[in-house]
Amino acid sequence: MSAPVEPAVSVSVTEVRNALRCPRIFALGRMGARAVAFPIGSSCLGSAFHRIVERFAAGVDAPPPGIATLGEGAPLDAIVAGLRACLLDLLAAELEGDAALRTMPGEVDDLAEALRQLATHLAARLRRFEGTPASALARLVRAGDRAIEAEAEPGVLVRGRHDALYADPDGALDVIEYKLTDEENDAVDRAQVALYSHMMRVATGARARPVVLRFMPMLRETTISHAEADVLVERTVRPVLRRMAAWSADPRSAPATERADLCAACPMVVPCSATYPERVGPRDDPPSGAARPRPGPEGETTVGPPRVVEPAAGDEEGKAEGERLRDLILAELRAQGIHAACPRPPLVGPTLVEIEVTRSRGPIAQLDRAAADVCHRLDAQGVEVELEKRRAKRVFVTRRATPRRVTLDPLLDEMRAYLAERPGRFVLGQRPSGEILVGDLGDASTPHLLVGGRAGSGKSCLLRAIVASLMHYHPPSAIRFVLVDPKRVTFHARSFQAAVSAHLDGPIRYEMEETLPVLERLVEAMEERYRLFEDARVSDILEYNEGCDPARRLERRVVVIDEFQDLTSDKATRQAFVDVVKRLGAKARAAGVHLVVATQRPDRETVPPILKTNLGGKIALKVTSAVNSRIILDEPGAEKLLGRGDLLADLGAGLVRAQAPLV
Question: Which residues pair with 426 in a beta bridge?
Answer without folding.
Answer: 439
